[in-house]
Amino acid sequence: MSHILSIDGQSGPLGPFVQRDSEAHPPALTPGYKTSILRSPRNALIANLPTLSEMTAPVFQPQELGAKDNDLLTNFAKDGLPIGERIVVHGFVRDQFGQPVRNALVEVWQANASGRYRHKKDQYIGSMDPNFGGCGRVLTDANGHYVYRTVKPGPYPWRNRINEWRPAHIHYSISGDGWAQRLITQLYFEGDPLIPECPIIKTIPSESQIRSLIALLDKDHAKPMDSLTYRFDITLRGRNATWFEN
Amino acid sequence: MTIQLTTPLTTQLTRYPETPSQTGGPYVHIGLAPQQAGFEIFDNNFGNVMVQPDTLGERIRVEGRVFDGSGTLMRDVLIEVWQANAAGKYAHPADRQDKPLDPAFRGWGRTGADFDTGVFSFETIKPGQVVGANGQLQAPHICLILFARGINTGLHTRLYFGDEDLANATDPILNGIEWEVRRKTLLATREQRAGEVVYRFDIRIQDTPDGGKETVFFDV
């Protein structure tokens, strides 16, 4: 008999991922988020039996990342520290069956404390911070845990309706064990009054799924006289056990 | 009439919902391609050159553009690819095929479309054939995923090679597309350019006014 396996396990076949629950995600066409109208397929997605192509994914090595890659407070600092609220963000990446996802590549990017991005195309009047880049990356450990340090991003205006404002958020990209798990999402902060108004958040069909994107203040893990802490856990698709030989 | 369904308690206990997707937004490059956003921050940047000098296999360039439903170029799209090596093996422990790994080939690349021309490209090798579901052999293919402003959940598609008629004809995924006319949206066309082999692969998120057909996207 085969066993349920983690990615490190060598004792049997690694099964396919369970079907993605489309109700857990935004549909492609969400007219309240205007850009989606011309950028969403009109045909239904086509489903197939999973193959090795979807059950595998790139493997990243710790030495590919630099020592400061997960410290946004210092990884772009030139002549001082960035201005803003010092925060640590941490959490666990697990699959839908609660198994830790080890060695997952977690990449984050965000605006600075003014709500201004370090990007050629961002022209917002909010000021740039010469000591803040706004991106970082980290591999999860053997427990699926990740941690990085940054400043809390500011909200910013964008042109959807004319007076549209994004809540403070940090973009996340997660590359796990399988191509089928590939996920990009956004973290929001507990208590932000802009959350219920945001048309991008409202693309998500259920209240409970929206709540799962809100990082919670984790004061117990704050560093006194230094930085506050937020907790944000991520769930990727679960890998099925293959009870019988393929 | 309301139909009352009862959910078994065990299901609730054993399966957590997947974290919901959100758009990558217009500044996706900051995190995933910071040099393209306009700044240097990491010593080691992930990119679109997937080959090293000793990588095995036929060198190819994959090049394309992405169009929205008005036929306008999507210049802010970010694309990743995942593929097997020249022997048809993935560099991942779940691939238990009895085939050689190529230590000089990871099989993964990432790039943004050019902000001016809208063109994206990868320097890679032509992959070998990989086994599919039920033991059927798949035609050589490259998996692609697209992230961008306006795309709420990353769009999965596949690039197949237009000069692999025989393998394509028996590929279980291509044949699983009920509408035969849609299959050709996944075929890249081979070109020879200054001694280089280029496969052109344009992607249309919707039908375009010039008659371009919507690319097939998969629920993987």
What does this structure look like?
The complex is a heterodimer of chains A (246) and B (220). Chain A has helices at 52-55, 207-211, and strands at residues 46-47, 86-95, 105-109, 135-139, 145-151, 156-158, 164-166, 169-175, 183-189, 214-217, 228-231, 234-236. By secondary structure, chain A is mainly β. Chain A has a single domain (2-245), classed as Aromatic compound dioxygenase (Protocatechuate 3,4-Dioxygenase, subunit A), CATH 2.60.130.10. Chain B has 220 residues and is α/β, with parallel strands linked by helices. Chain B has a single domain, classed as Protocatechuate 3,4-Dioxygenase, subunit A (Sandwich). In chain B, strands 1, 2, 3, 4, 5, 6, 7, 8 and 9 form a 9-stranded mixed sheet that branches. The longest helix of chain B is centred in the N-terminal third of the chain and has 6 residues, at 9-14. Chain B starts with 8 loop residues before the first helix and ends with a strand. Classes of the chains: A mainly beta (246), B alpha/beta (220). Chains A and B meet through strand 1, helix 1, strand 3, strand 9 and helix 2 of A and helix 2, strand 5, strand 6 and strand 10 of B.
Q: What is the average of the pLDDT values of chain B?
A: 95
The total of helices of chain A stands at 2
- The CATH H-level homologous superfamily of chain B: Aromatic compound dioxygenase
- β content of chain A, as a range? 15-25%
Uncertain ranges of chain B: none
Looking at the overall shape, the CATH architecture of chain A is: Sandwich
What is the ordering of alpha helices and beta strands of chain A? Answer: EHEEEEEEEEHEEE
Q: What structural class results from the helix and strand content of chain A?
A: mainly beta
Sheet with the most strands of chain A? 9 strands, mixed
Uncertain stretches of 5 or more adjacent residues of chain A:
1-13
Total of domains of chain A: 1
Oligomer: heterodimer
Report mean pLDDT of chain A, rounded to a whole number.
93
Tell me the Rg of chain A in angstroms.
19 Å
CATH-derived architecture of chain B: Sandwich
Tally of contiguous helical segments of chain B: 6
Portion in beta strands of chain B: 25-35%
Give the CATH level 1 class of chain A: Mainly Beta
Largest sheet of chain B: 9 strands, mixed
Number of beta-strand segments of chain A? 12
